[in-house]
Amino acid sequence: MSDTRKRILLIDDEEAMCRMIAAVMTDQGYAVTSFTRSPEAVTAFSSEHYDVVISDVKMPTMDGLEVLQRIKEIAPDIPVLMITAHATVDMSIQALRKGAYDMLTKPFEPEELLSRVRNALRQTQLLHENLELREELATRFGTIVGASPKLLAVLDTARKVATRDIPILITGESGTGKELVARAIHEHSDRRLRRFVAINCGAIPEALLENELFGHCKGAYTGADREHKGLLESADGGTLFLDEVGNLPLNVQKTLLRFLQEQEFYRVGDTRPTRVDVRVLSATNLDLQAAVQSQAFREDLYYRLNVVNVRLPPLRERRSDIPLLVGHFVRQQNERFGTAVRGCTPEAMERLCHFAWPGNIRQLSNVIQAAMAIENGDLIGLDVLMQLIELPANAYERSAGGNVASPLGELNAMDELDELDYPAALARFETAYLNRLLRKTGGNVEEVAHQAGMNIATIYRKMKKYGIR
Questions:
Q1: Any idea which of 160-164, 243-247, 350-354 has the lowest mean pLDDT?
Q2: Do 441 and 447 touch, CB atoms closer than 8 A?
Q3: Residues 219 and 251 grouped into a single domain
Q4: By the 8 A CB rule, do 254 and 217 touch?
Q5: What is the pLDDT of residue 432?
Q6: Residue 104 is part of a domain; what is its CATH number?
Q7: Radius of gyration in angstroms for the set of CA atoms belonging to the chain, rounded to a whole number
Q8: Between vectors from CA 190 to CA 328 and to CA 283, what angle results, nearest 5°?
Q9: In the predicted model, is pLDDT for residue 155 greater than 50?
Q10: With b meaning 16 or more CB within 10 Å and e meaning fewer, what string describes 134-162?
Q11: Other Cβ atoms within 10 Å of 275 Cβ, number
Q12: Fewest beta carbons within 10 Å, which of 71, 88, 178, 451?
């Protein structure tokens, strides 16, 4: 057997239980080290590497809750699965608060234990991959989170042009992270030691925008009792970021165009030009070419700003980044509020990955923040998410071709069922239904039973009857 097998530390004071669990796990390719004395197990854990710990709760000398605490002090990220024949609500709450991955009540089916172990390993692997990707991406380009091919291609372009002192137009839907990219470009440029100044052109009244950008001299208008330095002058030597640049009024567009051509501008009420050295980055969620056609935006300014275009894909085009982003936002909230949420349940994550996200990353961030404020457990559940966003009736969105993938795709051919007698049709339905729930829950038979409204024994009987593994 290869030494790359996942290693399991098993602790149970009942030798028969240890032998049974070890036999089941070994048969599935796991390397199992078992102990009937918990202090010896903790000592072994401190000197060896294990991927999962399975521990009984009721044990002499050192009970399972103390074992859990010791394990978490040594390796906080290792999943610990607790098993007990005397489960109570209070005990379960204590175990979960101390960091247990899950609780399993004796007697249990071997397949149920295997499913929990597989889920624990899968979650640990995902957490490690997310951490590695975050560290790798942080060295690539700023603090932007994501690893989808579309995003990486965009960031590669942005990184290449960051050191070229030219205007860049960042386009994309609202909430896709345009300002984050602008900041990353600034931080990777030769201007990174000087100021990055941002202004939302759509958030300032037209009458004040020119004054905010270019400033005014003393006596320029009633109440102008002293000189005011505008944002363009404040960014001297650094970068000015014009967010929602498509909302600039035409008179300000004209003044901005002159600056981009001459590298100088006039403060409001001034007769002498002011020269500054500023790189201009801009962003918009509007179609500026359409605005040029309708004469709402100057064509000459458009070409001055759009020397290089960086288009950010919407979140629905980079769904593989959603787990990374969720992990990022959960960690942010944990650090801010001192909480210990571990992420989402598999069902919740599946729905998050299939939601359309019209508000993109900003909407996802707000949903995770709200969910963590509402959720009482250590995992964000589907019931909490359904209070915050209008999830689709099934877990699947329309594809690019407009077709809907049915969660019971195996049952769409009703004509075939019509040709079968009732027992055969029922068998076809139950086989498809159970396969769908098993895929959805990652093989968690207990959760399948819960969602189907059946007991676990019934589910196992049907799986055996239809040859489902």
A1: 350-354
A2: yes
A3: yes
A4: no
A5: 79
A6: 3.40.50.2300
A7: 30
A8: 55
A9: yes
A10: beebeeebbebbbbbebbbebbeebeebb
A11: 11
A12: 88
Rounded to an integer, what distance in angstroms lies between the CA atom of residue 345 and that of residue 101? 12
Could you list the residue range(s) of the whole structural domain that residue 309 is in? 150-313
Q: What is the mean pLDDT of the chain?
A: 83
Report whether 420 contacts 428 (CB < 8 A): yes
- Alpha-carbon distance 77 to 79, whole Å? 6
Q: How confident is residue 408, by pLDDT bands cut at 50, 70 and 90?
A: very low
ω before 107 within 30° of 0 (cis)? yes
Dist. CA 404–CA 354, nearest whole Å: 12
pTM of the model: 0.57
Which position has the token pair 């002293």?
A: 226
Buried b / exposed e over 184-215, threshold 16 CB at 10 Å, is: bbbbbbebeebebbbbebeeeeeeebbbbbbb
Q: What is the DSSP letter of 404?
A: B
Q: Output the six-digit token pair for 267.
A: 């403060």
Q: From CA 277, how far away is CA 369, in angstroms rounded?
A: 40
Q: Is 218 helix (H, G, I), strand (E, B) or coil?
A: coil
Give the CATH number of the domain where residue 368 resides.
1.10.8.60
**DSSP 3-state assignment of 105?**
strand
The alpha carbon dihedral of 356, 359, 363, 367 has a sign of: negative
- 21 and 83 part of one domain: yes
Looking at the predicted structure, is the pLDDT value of residue 406 above 60? no
Say what the pLDDT of residue 348 is: 86
For residue 112, report the phi and psi dihedrals to the nearest 5 degrees.
-70, -45
Structure tokens at 431: 């086989």
CATH code assigned at 417: 1.10.10
Rounded distance between C-alpha atoms, residue 419 and residue 379, angstroms = 45
pLDDT in tens, 254-295: 999 999 999 899 888 888 899 999 999 999 999 999 999 999
Q: Is 258 inside any structural domain?
A: yes
Q: What pLDDT is attached to residue 402? A: 38
What are the tens digits of pLDDT across the range 213-234?
A: 998 888 777 777 788 888 999 9
Cα 459 from Cα 397, distance rounded (Å): 29
Cβ-contact 295, 302 below 8 angstroms: no
Note the pLDDT tens digit of each residue in 32-91.
Answer: 999 999 999 999 888 888 999 999 988 888 888 999 988 988 888 889 999 988 767 677
In angstroms, the CA 110 to CA 191 distance is 61
Is residue 311 helix, strand or coil? Answer: strand
